[in-house]
């Protein structure tokens, strides 16, 4: 890491070794203005509501990332993702099929008395 930094410094920032790319990406992603920080915290507070308190940190991080750097909803094309979902055997939102019951329940004679009282 130290040698990579020396190489970077000696080239006046023109040559970035692969060892420094992850660090450089992390540093460049830090907001430099407090207004930008405030916007990001505001977005996080919109995502981390009491209703969503059980979300994993990784899920919150992904939602926050998509919210901050993702395309606007009007530019998002869900068709490829829906096609992939359906191709994997998942049901569509308009699918009316339901799982069929495999085992029929036998009537319990003791329960017939109770059901009779309940007018079932």
Task: Name the features.
mainly alpha, 6 helices, elongated
Give an overview in words.
The protein is mainly alpha-helical. Among the domains are: 1-30, no CATH class; 32-77. It is 54% helix and 0% strand. It has six helices and no strands. The chain has helices at residues 2-10, 18-28, 34-47, 57-69, 79-87, 109-117. It starts with a helix and ends with a helix. The model has no long low-confidence stretch (mean pLDDT 81).
Please state the CA-atom Rg, rounded to the nearest Å. 28 Å
Q: Beta-strand percentage?
A: under 5%
- What overall geometry do the principal axes of the alpha carbons give? elongated
The main β sheet shows up as: none
Helix-strand pattern: HHHHHH
| Structural class estimated from helices and strands | mainly alpha
Helix proportion of residues, in percent?
40-55%
Instruction: Tell how many strands the DSSP assignment holds.
Output: 0
Count helical runs.
6
Compute the average pLDDT. Answer: 81
Separation of the first and last Cα atoms: 76 Å
Show unreliable segments.
none
């Amino acid at each position: 890491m130290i040698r990579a930094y020396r190489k970077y410094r000696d080239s006046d920032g023109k040559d970035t070794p692969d060892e420094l790319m992850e660090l450089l990406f992390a540093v460049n992603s830090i907001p430099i203005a407090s207004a930008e920080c405030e916007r990001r915290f505001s977005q996080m507070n919109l995502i981390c509501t009491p209703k969503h308190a059980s979300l994993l940190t990784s899920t919150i991080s992904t939602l926050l990332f998509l919210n901050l750097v993702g395309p606007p909803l009007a530019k998002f094309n869900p068709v490829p993702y829906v096609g992939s979902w359906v191709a994997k055997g998942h049901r569509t939102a308009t699918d009316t099929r339901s799982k069929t019951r495999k085992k029929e329940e036998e009537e319990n004679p003791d329960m017939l008395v109770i059901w009779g009282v309940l007018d079932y």
